[in-house]
Design brief:
This protein is an all-alpha fold and about 120 residues long. It has one domain (about 10-110). The chain contains 7 helices and no strands. The longest helix has 19 residues, at about 75-95. The protein is globular.
Length: about 120
């Protein structure tokens, strides 16, 4: 979703897990329902338009899926896209490794508070 070459995917996945763990239980449950839906092969085919398992999907198929949800006339799909987008952005921008690429330098008094 970020479309950056050399993206540390494993770091982003861990960051998504951290972001989800900090959400309210009700929101975590809604995300679980979304992920369960996307894990279902019929939903993946008919709602996302991806015929192959996610691990075998091409970049263009994934891009088409995300764009279709981003611009869907159905509010539910647009909301699901926004949730996925927000999680990945939280994981990326919360990762100190991304800060130099953005030109961001955390103030020293804040850095001393981080673990």
């Amino acid at each position: 979703m970020l479309g950056l070459p050399g993206l540390p995917v494993n770091d982003i996945v861990r960051g998504v897990d951290v972001a989800i763990s900090n959400l309210l239980p009700a929101i975590q449950q809604e995300l679980r329902q979304l992920f369960d839906l996307l894990a279902n092969r019929w939903a993946r085919r008919w709602l996302a338009g991806v015929r192959k398992p996610w691990a075998q999907a091409t970049e263009s198929e994934l891009t088409a899926f995300l764009r279709s949800w981003q611009h869907s006339p159905l509010l539910l799909l647009r909301s699901a896209y926004q949730a996925l987008h927000a999680l990945i952005n939280a994981a990326w921008f919360g990762n100190p490794a991304s800060w130099s690429a953005m030109g961001y330098q955390q103030p020293p008094q804040i850095m001393s508070l981080l673990p």
